[in-house]
Write a structure and sequence with these properties.
The protein is mainly beta and 205 residues long. The chain is 3% helix and 33% strand. The protein has one helix and 18 strands. It has a six-stranded parallel sheet with strand order 3-4-7-10-13-16, with helices on one face. Strands 5-8-11-14-17 form a five-stranded parallel sheet, with no helix packed on it. A hairpin with a 5-residue loop joins strand 1 and strand 2. The protein starts with 5 loop residues before the first strand and ends in an 8-residue tail after the last strand.
Length: 205
Amino acid sequence: MSRTALFVNKQSGGMFAVEDMVFSTGSRFFVSSGTGTDGAGYGRSPDSPVATIDYAVSLCTASKNDVIIVMPGHAETVSAAGGLDLDVAGITIIGVGSGGLQPTVTLDTAAAADVDIDAANITVENIHFVAGVADIVAAIDVNADDFTLRNCRFSDSAADLNALIWVQDAAATGSDRITIEGCHAIAKDAANTHFVNFAGTGDGH
């Protein structure tokens, strides 16, 4: 049998996907706040997605390079510390859409609201993070190695709806090799201090 760079992936309850093996051989999960349901039997197809990124993370298997595809127009709210916890190693979260259709994660209600990166080798791409409450302490709290943030957007809703720090590393060497590429941040409030705060002693950023 001749070899091919393409991989046919069939998930239980999902659909066939023919993809380049270089991209990933892990499972695919789909997220849409407009049409999704957080429950058993959802997430394996764009026709039956789950409703939140956090629920999709719970469906992933560590270190298999599973991919979460966040569909155009998705809008999600994080209202507490660790309200979105990326705690499964080796996953990639990819937002689909640009401009007004770029998937949005809004942090509101509490200054402690944040997205936690609690497992290694996680990548987040093309998500628009929005501050919806005053003086968010640190919006993305990186507590593990090899985190990549790519082509994301960061916005304060207003001068008093802001993130003091958008990306915060861990103390000591708890978050080595953070990579940030192609991101765009607009910070309106005079109290803001950092887009990225490398306060720890991590290596290889």
